[in-house]
Design goal:
Length: about 290
């Protein structure tokens, strides 16, 4: 069975940067196992499968897979898939669309070249002491922010948000695989377990996302779901109105830019992230 697919770089200002994504059309007849096998074969951070599309209502249903498991929500796959749908399938990027994912409906729209998504309301879980990080990282006590907490936050996928007080510590950060795995298993509230380190100085925001998959310690080039969590965190602890650019991926040679636009009124969060997508290739996959 031939399956049309597209490859895009997401949160990328130019080709061959940002986060890679494969988007598969006409996937409604695939089993979950087949989708998982395809995602494992292409081996990007995530691949998406369009299982339903309705041009009359500007809506689509998608499923998101890493090489190891299916995700309920992920930012760069939603941004990239929406770009493909609006610019290559619907051919009308001016019309907002709704993407249905396991956590619900995600409104997406395009302004100029930027595609924006509206995230779900965040959940704030446990806070942690920085002392435990010395057991699995190169970080020292004075590398952590004294004003901001280390906390697990979710907008559909959960991340432990770790604020640092200098860019050098972020740049030189290294983790021990086994000890990191033990810490994540012992402390995280959700099945998806990852660490999102960041440094903020004025309007300069830099981040790194590290996680364990298939027994390997990996780093993501651009993480939209983590960025919605970080934006919620910053709205709560730093500023109730936020327009800033999150820079990620430099440590692995795939620089990315994730645009933040958020507000918090003390009760409800209005969290939007945006990014550019670069079209790389299209083809047909033989299932």
């Amino acid at each position: 069975m031939p399956l049309p697919f597209h490859i895009v770089d997401v949160f990328a200002e130019s080709k061959y940067s940002g986060n890679q994504l494969a988007v598969f059309e006409n996937a409604q007849d695939l089993t979950q196992a087949e989708m998982q096998n395809i995602a494992r074969e292409i081996n990007f951070a995530e691949s998406t499968f369009i299982t339903q599309i309705d041009k009359k209502t500007n809506a689509a249903t998608i499923r998101i897979f890493t090489p190891e498991f299916e995700m309920k929500f992920a930012g760069h796959p939603i941004i990239g898939t929406a770009w493909v749908i609006m610019n290559r399938i619907f051919s009308d990027p001016k019309q907002p669309i709704n993407l249905m994912v396991p956590i619900g409906k995600i409104p997406v729209y395009q302004e100029g070249e930027l595609v924006w998504l509206q995230s779900a309301q965040p959940e704030f879980f446990s806070t942690f002491s920085s002392e435990g990080f010395s057991e699995f990282s190169t970080l020292k006590k004075n590398d952590f922010s004294a004003e901001l907490p280390i906390q697990e936050v979710s907008t559909g996928s959960a991340f432990v948000i770790v604020p640092l007080n200098n860019r050098e510590a972020l740049t030189n950060l290294k983790l021990d695989l086994l000890c990191t795995h033990e810490w994540l298993q012992s402390n995280c509230k959700t099945a998806f377990q990852a660490l999102y380190f960041f440094y903020l100085e004025g309007n300069d925001l830099y981040s790194r996302m590290l996680y364990i998959e298939n027994g390997q310690l990996k780093e993501d080039a651009a993480t939209g779901s983590a960025s919605t969590c970080l934006q919620a965190y910053l709205l709560k602890y730093h500023a109730a109105n936020l327009q800033i650019t999150n820079q990620q991926g430099d440590a692995i040679g795939r620089p990315s830019k994730i645009y933040f636009n958020g507000q918090w009124d003390g009760v409800n969060f209005d969290i939007k992230i945006g990014g550019n997508s670069q079209y790389i290739a299209k083809g047909t996959w033989e299932v």
